[in-house]
Design brief:
Helix 2 (26-44) packs antiparallel against helix 3 (52-61) and helix 5 runs parallel beside helix 6 (178-184). This protein is of the alpha+beta class and 479 residues long. Strand 12 (427-434) and strand 13 form a beta hairpin. The chain contains 14 helices and 13 strands. The protein has a single domain (7-465), classed as Amidase signature (AS) enzymes.
Length: 479
Amino acid sequence: MSWPQDYDTYDGLGLAALVRRRELKAEELLETAIARVEARNPGVNAVVTRLYDRARAAIAAGLPEGPFTGVPYLLKDLGVLYAGAVTTWGSRLFANYVADHDSEITVRLKRAGLVIFGKTNTPELGLSASTEPRLFGPTRNPWNPGRSAGGSSGGAAAAVASGMLPMAHATDGGGSIRIPASCCGLFGLKPTRARNPMGPDQGEGWSGASVGHAVTRSVRDSAALLDATSGPDVGDPYWAPPPTGPFLAEVGRDPGRLRIALTTTPWNGQAVDPECSAAAGAAAKLCAELGHVVEEARPEVDAEALGQATRTIVGGNVRAQLEARAAALGREVTPEDVEKATWTRAAEGRTASAADYARSVLVVHRTGRAVARFFTRYDILLTPTMCRPPYPLGVLDMMADDQTANLAALLASVGFTSLFNTAGNPAMSVPLAWSADRLPLGVQFAAAFGAEATLFRLAGQLEAARPWAGRRPPATPSG
């Protein structure tokens, strides 16, 4: 082994195996990851909080025996608390907020043996499909530094794609795992609603739209991570259907002959770039070659009503978060405290009534039932992940004066992804295509509620048929 040059030829499970066989110490692995961050982060701005000494102390104190013992890990700076560390939600308003406890997901990640050594960049309050917060500045796509790494888990995706580590924590409220995975050439699974816990501070996010998991290079890392973190916490308002066995065991298992529906038309009416449509078409052809039945079909939903309901729900949640912060600070929050897009969403939340919110939840539930009925006829729905290749930086700037244009660009990013946040279904972005400009183009596969096992079986089959792990951004340094 030529260490650390061989570091990024291993996925997380591979690194854990080296530690378990005592071919490598956890301390050596951590220092290698730290060196990668220090060498590569200036070019992408993925890591915004360094917790190196805490990570060293955790190793010195003794790590628990788990599937990822000794493997370095980064938390997203949103959606998860780590006691004693600042959580900013990508916002100046929270720049000095220090958690006094761990989120349950943090407890489970540490119990899996992961070594948390930093936090990754995110747009303010996770409200954009690109990571360009005023607090920390933009995260750059490792494949092209002038392009977006996606959002809201853009820092996580850029860190993994640039070879800092093999996997990183991410969250998804409208596509925020799948979009950056698509932009950066990674595997990104959004689990079923409530598969992973959000407690103890929340029971759900955005009326059930949001869920946390990870972006990874390998399919098996995603499955093993979900095995380590999934399952209800005490007091959760609802649970995802329990799996029949370990998700890791599904990777490599024959998926059988799946009934796959294909659509390249987003529900919100956004135009689709021909390269994104072609990527989905090529994936459909590959699935047919693998023995699956593919035909064009899609669930029909009231997209206009759903769009308004989503804005009402998100706006209400943003307003509530700002009001809670105002109470903690003992002063009113003003437009100068947050970015323009955040204030616009908060203003919508203040204008909407409680009845508007209740009607919006009814729309969400009606939409979920329509999607559920669709998956009684099909096992998988295949779409492009995004309507466009990764945007140039600045297109999705939340401080832009033209917030109408900003919203239009956002809708083009989430045109295929957000439906499965509304319905709660699991969905994954798989890095099966690259544009003529050598930018990654993800392809999305969604399944029935609770059917991550189906996705992992198919993902393992696709990974074997069209391997992507060896593809690296052309400008990635060797050190």
